Amino acid sequence: MPQRAATAAGTAAAAARQALPLGERLGAITGLDLARGLRNVAGSETLLERALRRFAAAYGSGVPALDQFATDAERREARRASHSLRGACSTIGAVPLASALESFERALDAPQDITTLHDHHLRVAGELGDFLQELRIFLGDADGAVQ
After folding, report:
1. Which CB contacts under 8 angstroms, 24+ apart, belong to 35-41?
2. Does 147 fall in a domain?
3. Contacts for 88 with CB less than 8 Å, ≥ 6 apart
């Protein structure tokens, strides 16, 4: 019975968030520089929302290439994937995540031990997970799956 009450409360909270104007919902996304994101879509909140939905769809399951960096070939692939994700982050205004990715790319380019790379990877994985959770909330998915 308590689980049902918690689910009902979560659904009600998600519905209340969805009732807010789009600009307010966008402004509530932690990790999103709203001004930067809007600047990249000619000030259109609707276009930014669409871009955020596409980002969530593209990266909602993570980026497996970022998880492998033991060999030179894996480092090159991780750097390519990081750079691609960083470009997407810059476009939508996900500044903290873009910054973490930039640091990870620099670490991949330099002679680093695996422990240092792992530390950078953990920061990226945490930032990505946190931002995706914020998008799940924005998209109104109280159950945690990106729509």
Report:
1. 35/93, 36/93, 36/95, 37/91, 37/92, 37/93, 37/94, 38/93, 40/90, 40/91, 40/92, 40/93
2. no
3. 55, 58, 59, 94
In a domain, 19, yes or no: yes
Query: Residue 143 domain-assigned?
Result: no
Q: Which residues of 114-139 are buried (b: 16+ CB within 10 A; e: fewer)?
A: eeebeebbebbbebbeebbebbbbbb
Q: By CB neighbour count within 10 A (0-12 exposed, 13-18 middle, 19+ buried), where does 101 fall?
A: buried
Q: Which strand (E) or helix (H) includes residue 116?
A: helix 114-138
* DSSP summary character for residue 62: -
Structure confidence by residue, pLDDT tens digits, 93-144: 999 999 999 999 999 999 888 999 999 999 999 999 999 999 999 988 754 4
